[in-house]
Amino acid sequence: MAFTGYHNVTGSTGVHVELLAPGDNAGNVKSIMLTNIHATVDATVSLSVVKLSDSSALNASETYYLLHTVAIPADASLLLDSSDILAFNNSANGYSLFITVNATDTVDVIIKK
After folding, report:
1. Over the stretch 1-12, which tens digit does the pLDDT of each residue have?
2. I need a labelling partner for 91 at 20 to 30 A (CA). Which of 11, 24, 97, 112 fits?
3. Among 49, 30, 57, 48, which residue's Cα sits nearest to residue 91?
4. 58-72: b or e for each residue (b if 16 or more CB lie within 10 Å)?
């Protein structure tokens, strides 16, 4: 799978979304910008590094949270820019990066490597 650095995540179309799949080889992530594009409502976001036991996101054998249920205010952004914390094994046998949002949230994600 090829690295994709830009994502529109809408809770109504999927609340648990894979941003980076194993094999994207984006383990040297430098920053992640999360932007709540809703004008009046906070977005609740979790960001996790996940080792899948098979190809299903529901079958995680290991999960490590970078963020867990963090509220991003309406029309605001959260920048994660500590590359030593964001680096992880994203090889074909490595980890995925997932975002989880509430069903009514809309969050734009920009990943820089």
Report:
1. 578 899 999 988
2. 11
3. 49
4. eebeeeeebbeeeeb
